[in-house]
Amino acid sequence: MSELKQVILVRQDLKLPKGKLGAQCAHASVEAVLKSPSSTIKEWRSQGMAKIVLKVKDEKELIHYFQLAKDAGLTASLITDAGRTVIAPGTKTCAGIGPDEEEEIDKLTGKLSLL
User: Fold this and answer.
1) pLDDT in tens, 29-38
2) Which of 98, 105, 108 is nearest to 75 (CA)?
3) Does the residue 89 lie in any domain?
4) Separation of alpha carbons 77 and 41, rounded Å
5) Residue 2 has what pLDDT?
6) Which strand ranges, in their side-by-side order, compose the sheet holding 4-11?
7) How many domains does the chain have?
8) What is the span of the domain harbouring residue 11?
9) Residue 80: inside a domain
10) Whether 78 contacts 66, CB under 8 Å
């Protein structure tokens, strides 16, 4: 199998505090992994579970990349916050894509900047 990775997309317009940002990224990662086939998870784990955190401008861009991933047949999760701390309930904060083939993910997200 080829190299696998996961990307986490984070909205920059929300300006989340570091702790909240970390928690939202973790939610996106875990949710995407829970949607993945066990064989993919096993292979990804054996490769070191590569994760890359990338920036998106706003909710519109977040949803755009999430939909592109789904349309391409990639595992994807979209995180909507419960609103218990610093942002309003229902705010879409992050998306997780993969673990899937690095090449396929890069086709969609390769132009985005690292967080």
Assistant:
1) 999 999 999 9
2) 98
3) yes
4) 15
5) 87
6) 51-56, 4-11, 92-101, 76-80
7) 1
8) 4-109
9) yes
10) yes
Query: Does some domain include residue 115?
Result: no
d(CA 62, CA 14): 12
Amino acid at 68: L
Measure the CA–CA gap between 71 and 81, rounded to whole angstroms. Answer: 24
Looking at residues 94-100, what average pLDDT do you find? 98
Locus of tokens 């973790």: 26
Find tokens 């993945």 and name the residue.
36
- pLDDT (0 to 100) of residue 98: 98
Residue 87 lies in a domain: yes
In sequence order, what are the beta bridge partners of 55? 10
Task: Kindly report the CATH number assigned to the domain that includes residue 56.
Answer: 3.40.1490.10
pLDDT digits (tens, 9 = 90+) for 54-63: 999 999 999 9
